[in-house]
Write a structure and sequence with these properties.
alpha+beta; 5-stranded antiparallel β-sheet; 4-stranded antiparallel β-sheet; 31 strands
Length: about 575
């Protein structure tokens, strides 16, 4: 009885564990580092009809808004739908906060950790400022050729219809943009702004105190002010606007004496580690093993990181792979990594010692020299496994001199094996020829069907019908945009896009995003989606239409490729 009860308990426990392992809904945020007063987006993958319980968020966050996004995919002739809930959150306090696990049906999301810093005391702008900029550096003191993270933030509360941010210029500095930038909402002095944040890699080439001049923004805007419009793209119309950031001072120290420029490696932290594709400390002659060495550093870019001096010991052949480099930003600090991969093949048995690897670096924080070291590694190399073929050994017979019949092939057996081998070879050749003929027939038939389909698709009547339909949908969409009717715009835009992009699978704004790269239009799609699902007042119809007109002009040749051309254009000219 006890055994039966134990088995039942184990089965039930296994079911509960499996259900718990499966009861996880994917969720992620657009960023984990932000300042108090700034927003972030929480993305939750859901099934159609599910409504997550967002009440646990109210403890540390204000739910600024929610939108839904849907997309459809066709995989192996099976249509699948993907649904996502986008929740805009505004942290209530600063510090390390946790986005709690949220229940979605019978599942739940994972908890997510974020860090919210206090607002900068040097932040500029006020209640009456509809447009302002802020510039800052991650650190105030650095060294020559030691890169610094430089950040520009543009705050705006008006309808921007075009513009460009220009970083400052200096013969003592070099600027390199990092990524495409971030966009989010911020509450400054009780007023909500859209924020464009762009990072730059700033590298000083001279020592001394350097004043980084202001960054400049120049653009155009409409007269009406709003908190939910964004677009940086060249368009005509509107009134000119401009803003400039604050200046930033940077103390650049000279390279310390006694340090060679070839080994100059300034950083905030350096780590050296390695892994091997084996367990234990035993190698085999002729058997390869791969070593991966990781050099990571904070406060520097991989382009200025020195290379490691990696030497191989005797009695081993080394085959290094191409060095890989990675860069990123973590906690508002530059992070760089270099990855070295080397394949080693021992050539002799015995003891094999890989010497230690060292790299000198300079600590930017305390101004001291350090050495990162990778300890020596020792292996015992055993001989390769011996086989009968490489030892030259022959099978010995007993003392009587008789041989074992099973080990001595007869002439009859050899003849049979040769005949069998010839038959298999002939069969293989015949099958190969038949397969090639079949493949050739399929190719000819497939090519013929494609030509036939292309000829049918390129009928002039179908081209005229498609053009007429597209123009009709454009008129309907333009009329809806002029009326600022979000629901009607939403439906008309999807109908128009399915014809414009020649994609019948477009059934949502998410499907349109798959064909669009212009950031201005993508932002307008976000605003339209918010107005539809949050039932907000929508006043950006004209902006959306202007973006669509700009898209048509910019991609005119691409659109013509989608539209069907006449099959016999010469005949039309003769008429």
């Amino acid at each position: 009885m006890n055994k039966l009860f134990s088995r039942i308990f184990i089965v039930l426990l296994s079911i509960m564990i499996c259900q718990h392992a499966m009861a996880t809904v994917a969720a992620h945020v657009d960023r984990t580092q932000l300042s108090q007063g700034e927003s972030l987006k929480l993305f939750i993958d859901i099934s159609k009809g599910d409504k997550p319980d967002l009440s646990p968020l109210n403890k540390d966050f204000q739910v600024y808004g929610t939108t839904n996004s849907s997309s459809y995919q066709l995989i192996n002739d099976k249509r699948t739908s993907l649904h996502q809930l986008i929740v805009t959150l505004m942290p209530k306090t600063s510090g390390k906060l946790t986005i709690p696990a949220l229940k979605v049906g019978n599942d739940s999301t994972q908890a997510i950790q974020i860090t919210v810093s206090k607002p900068s005391p040097t932040q500029i702008g006020g209640k009456k400022s509809a447009l302002f900029m802020q510039a800052s550096t991650a650190i105030e003191k650095t060294y020559v050729n030691a890169p610094v993270l430089y950040t520009i933030k543009l705050y705006y509360a008006n309808n921007i219809t075009g513009g460009q941010i220009s970083p400052p210029h200096s013969d003592k500095l070099s600027f390199k943009p990092l990524g495409k930038g971030d966009r989010y909402t911020a509450n400054v002095h009780g007023r909500y702004y859209q924020v464009v944040e762009q990072h730059y890699l700033l590298t000083p080439t001279q020592s001394g105190e350097i004043t980084i001049g202001p960054a400049i923004f120049q653009g155009t805007a409409t007269g009406r002010q709003s908190n939910n419009n964004f677009g940086f793209f060249s368009m005509s119309g509107g009134r000119p606007i401009a803003a400039q950031s604050n200046s930033v001072k940077l103390d650049v120290q000279a390279m310390p004496s006694g340090v060679s420029p070839l080994t100059w490696f300034p950083a905030q932290a350096v780590k050296l580690s390695d892994t091997w594709t084996l367990t234990g400390d035993t190698l085999t002659v002729g058997t390869p093993v791969t070593r991966t060495i990781n050099l990571t550093a904070l406060g520097i870019d991989s382009s200025v990181m020195p290379d490691l001096n990696i030497t191989a010991p005797d009695h081993v052949n080394a085959y290094p792979d191409k060095t890989q480099s990675q860069d990123g930003i973590k906690n508002n600090t530059l992070m760089a990594e270099k990855i070295y991969k080397i394949a080693y093949i021992p050539t002799e048995a015995g003891t094999l010692t890989f010497p230690p690897i060292q790299i000198k670096w300079w600590d930017n924080k305390d101004g001291t020299a350090h050495v990162a070291t990778l300890a020596a590694k020792q292996f015992q190399v055993k001989p390769a496994a011996k086989t009968a073929s490489n030892t030259g050994a022959t099978t010995q017979t007993p003392s009587t001199g008789a041989t074992t019949p099973t080990n001595t092939p007869t002439a009859e057996k050899i003849i049979i094996e040769k005949k069998t081998s010839k038959i298999w070879l002939l069969s293989t050749i015949i099958l190969l020829i038949l397969w090639l003929l079949t493949l050739l027939a399929w190719f000819i038939q497939n090519k013929s069907s494609k030509k036939k389909q292309t000829s049918e698709d390129l009928l002039p009547d179908q081209q005229n019908k498609q053009q007429i339909k597209l123009k009709k949908l454009q008129r309907q969409l333009k009329s809806a945009c002029q009326k600022n009717d979000a629901q009607t715009i939403h439906s008309a835009l999807i109908d128009w896009a399915s014809v414009y992009f020649n994609d019948k699978n477009i059934r949502s704004l998410h499907g349109i995003r798959q064909h669009v790269t212009d950031q201005a239009l993508l932002q307008q799609l976000d605003y339209l989606e918010q107005a539809v699902y949050r039932q907000q007042t929508y006043e950006s119809g004209n902006m959306l239409w202007q973006c669509l007109e700009a898209l048509e002009k910019q991609y005119k040749q691409k659109v013509q490729a989608y539209l069907i051309k006449p099959l016999y254009p010469d005949k039309g000219n003769k008429k």
